[in-house]
Amino acid sequence: MRRRAFALLLMGVVAGVQCPSHAQPVVKTARLAILSGASLGSPAAAPLFRAFRDQLARNGWEEGRNLIVDAASTDGKADLFAARAAELVARSPDVIVATNSQAVAAGMAQTSSVPIVMLDVSHPVEAGFVQSLASPGSNVTGVTNQGKDIAIKHYDLVRELNPQVQRVGLVFTPSNVGSSLGLKEQTVTAHERGIAVVPIPFEGPADLDAAAMILKRERVQALQVHTTPATITNRAPIAKLALELALPTISFYPVMTQAGLLMSYGDNRIASWRRAATYVDRLLRGERPTNLPVEQPTSFHLHINLKTARALGLTIPPTLLARADEVID
To answer: Taking a C-beta distance cutoff of 8 angstroms, is the pair 122, 173 a contact?
Structure first.
């Protein structure tokens, strides 16, 4: 009996040693800060935050038990990021989640020691957030949206609708470093495809009239919309303007097609937010951001709004419809 008891005890010790970190019990209360461009309760962010929160719970972190969450949003206003970041850092968080390039930059300006988990960032290396995807080399790690590669795919999708498209308007946000870098990169790669990119700066509703003037003057044939806090917050009026000008539109996330844009193609945001929660878990348990490589998405979704297609008088090719993950009708 003693031998059996000792053997069972030894097996338990070995199992405990082999147990992965995410299965170990949480023994402290942690503080998490989230800086976003939209309120986490908004229609655009709520499903993402729900997936994020559920993944944290699966990893052992729950609000009201061992986790305090401080969230701050800018409601799409670029000039509020610095102040919101300062407010969050002043509360001494253990980890910061930054849900776009502007949030990452604002967080880095406030702290070089608190780990920052980034989301929805297209150019993390070029923006100076990390040294490389494999070796971040800073207090930032997380998930990139691979936007610089996806943006080129957008042109191929537009050409499937109309092979004659040669001029594409690009709604971008100058204050968002990822969006600005994307504009420069896409201008070159689109040219290689025989497409001219027409920049449409957009920081908020005050830019809608100017955008309309540029679109009319430059005789664009389609419109691509970067997903930044400014464009996501104002997605409905952007969709309305494009419809008034009879322009087919494409963006990165389904929240844009749900608001009336024609198509969206981009990474699976629910999956990306769940991965971000896993980063938070590992950092809260003591891992260093410099030791956590930046991940790239592995699944992508195509969404098509048939209501918008009918309003534009467009027929979506059956081959394109067949590839869609969601068709809004």
So the answer is: no
What residues does each domain of the chain span?
A: 30-145+268-298, 147-267+301-328
Task: Give, as one character, the DSSP assignment of residue 306.
Answer: H
Report pLDDT digits (tens) over 143-177. 999 887 898 899 999 999 999 999 999 999 999 99
Class of domain 147-267+301-328: alpha beta
**Residue type, position 303, single letter:** H
Q: What is the CATH number of domain 30-145+268-298?
A: 3.40.50.2300
- pTM for the whole thing? 0.88
Mean predicted confidence (pLDDT) in 84-108:
98
Distance CA 188, CA 198 (A): 12
Cβ density class 134-170: b for 16+ within 10 Å, e for less: eebebbbbbbbbbbbebbeebbebbbebeeebeebbb
Amino acid found at 2: R
CA distances from 273 to 186, 290, 323 (A): 26, 20, 24
